[in-house]
Amino acid sequence: MTITRRLALGTLAASPLLAAPALRAQAPVEIVFNYPIAVGGPITRIIDGYCEDFARANPGFRVKPIYAGSYQDTLTKTLTAMRGGDAPQMACLLAVDIFTLIGEDAVLAWDDLPGTDKAWLDSFYPSFLENSRTAGKTWGVPFQRSTVVMYWNKEAFREAGLNPETPPADWAQQVDFAQKLTKRQGDATSQWGMQIPSSGFPYWLFQGLTTQNDVRLMNAEGNRTNFADPKVAEALQYWMDLSMKHRVHPAGIVEWGTTPRDFFERKVAMMWTTTGNLTNVRRNAPFPFGVGMLPAGKRRGSPTGGGNLYVFKSASAAQREGAVRFARFLTTPERAAQWGIDTGYVAVTPAAFETPAMRAHVADFPPAAVARDQLEFAVAELSTQENQRVTKALNDNLQAALTGRKPAAPAMADAQAEAERILRRYR
């Protein structure tokens, strides 16, 4: 064979076509990440940016976000895919889905994954970890977390002769303020004093009232509820009285999704909603507004809420390593701080609030610290075995009471009876 022929063969052997298998072996490990939001909007741009930044910092891995709709849609699609053998490797799902995901044998405990350590898992706010741990294991890493807070229209306060910088401190004062803020001519109300949404997540808003009345709705094991406790009925009666007795709150079902718009349009002067609406309110309220902790009953209190990061058993060893890297990437103090600044969700670690960016943000916009400060009084969001069925039993009976179809105590007794029927086999 001539030297020219040997060189030609050598060149062919080194061509990209024949080297392709080696190149494919070096392709980044892909991690499918189901995320609870509809396609489009600022949150998707933020998450897309995080995934791109992660890929640049970790060239051996690539996170592919799948935007799957609401939390409920995302859970349904994720579990359906898992049963069909096509589960994602990672998802952001509600913290309260913990018992459902464990019951489905779908997820892995973070403690058992490579690259985790106790210091990192313990670095989150303890109140967020209440819905993230059970049976001595951490199943969810806090990420998109929230509490319920009060927003008020400072112009409306001033017009009503109230101090625009001071929200109601307790239940009695909340009614008093709401009466002063309600604008009514005959039977027509142009501005309600306050509004607590009762669609979508009525149990979550209701937990603000039950916590303030010093009662918890469930045990830590998720197999027992306390809906029939007299303190629970008392809390519901207070909510009912806002519309039926004091006439400071719209009657019937108040929509979750339209409550911020009602606030912007001056149809309501005070509203309870998630701290996740903070950026939305800051951008869209056409008047100065305040943000405060929920008024106290027997005590202060709010449930925590929002989403945790989960790793699915479908993940390979390499994907599990990548999922841990991505979770740690998302929850670094600097990135958790920026996430809170950009979205209004609560930065999930104390260290995030010590970053220069968050310190500057809180100095410029003090409401950003309200939800953090309320964590001292927060409790775990309602979460049980077969959580969707138990929550539906409570929601249905809350709405029956708020629409006048049932008195408070019988409604809660009916919710408890249904919860008992569902949960008895888990004890």
Automatic annotation (TrEMBL):
Q: Report the leader peptide range.
A: 1-19
Q: Name one matching Pfam family.
A: SBP_bac_8
Could you tell me the keywords of this UniProt record? Signal
Which SUPFAM superfamilies does the annotation name? Periplasmic binding protein-like II
Q: What domain of life does the native source organism fall in?
A: Bacteria
Q: Which InterPro entries match?
A: Bact_solute-bd_prot1, SBP, TAT_signal
Quote the Gene3D superfamilies the UniProt record gives.
Answer: Periplasmic binding protein-like II
The name on file for this protein is ABC transporter substrate-binding protein
Q: Which PROSITE patterns match?
A: TAT (PS51318)
Q: Does the keyword Cell membrane apply?
A: no
Q: What is the organism of origin for this protein?
A: Falsiroseomonas selenitidurans
Instruction: State the compartments where it is located.
Output: Periplasm
Give the record's family classification. Answer: Belongs to the bacterial solute-binding protein 1 family.
